[in-house]
Amino acid sequence: MLTDPIGDFFSRLRNGAKARKESVIAPYSKMKEQILLILKSEGFVIDFEVEEKTKAQKKLVAHLKFQRTGDAVLENIRRISKPGHRVYSEAPTQPRVRGGIGFQILSTSKGLMTDKSAVQQKVGGEVLGEVW
User: What pLDDT, on a 0 to 100 scale, did the predictor assign at position 93?
Assistant: First the structure.
């Protein structure tokens, strides 16, 4: 049993990128699918798909993006808000991740979004993690 499935998902992505794997497989959840949509829109993942062996066993397959040098575009992804320590943030006080190179993923009342989108829509929420 996993106590932090989002943290496990971030670790799978980070380890897959460092090991230069073409794709990473993770158990399916709607939140993980939304995280992959954000990573795809920001250019860190080429694409992803939902594999369905049975109705009870869905899996997400994320295809990682690499530079011409062979290095992964996804340098690091880390969990901020954890099950034992939740971290919340207001929109106007968002710190810039790596001087604007990276971004934060927030869970807001309007769904999952990046910190830039949250500032534009003037909403705050739980900071799930940082990506750069």
Answer: 65
pTM: 0.92
Check residue 17 and give its pLDDT.
97
What lies within 8 Å, CB to CB, of 17 at 6+ separation is: 64, 72, 73, 74, 75
Dist. CA 68–CA 71, nearest whole Å: 7
CATH number of 80-132: 3.30.1490.10
User: Which CATH code is given to the segment(s) 1-74?
Assistant: 3.30.1370.30
Domain boundaries, the chain: 1-74, 80-132
Tens of pLDDT, residue by residue over 99-113, are: 778 999 999 999 999
Q: Which amino acid is at 70?
A: G
Question: Which of 79, 85, 74, 82 lies closest to 105 in space, CA to CA?
Answer: 79
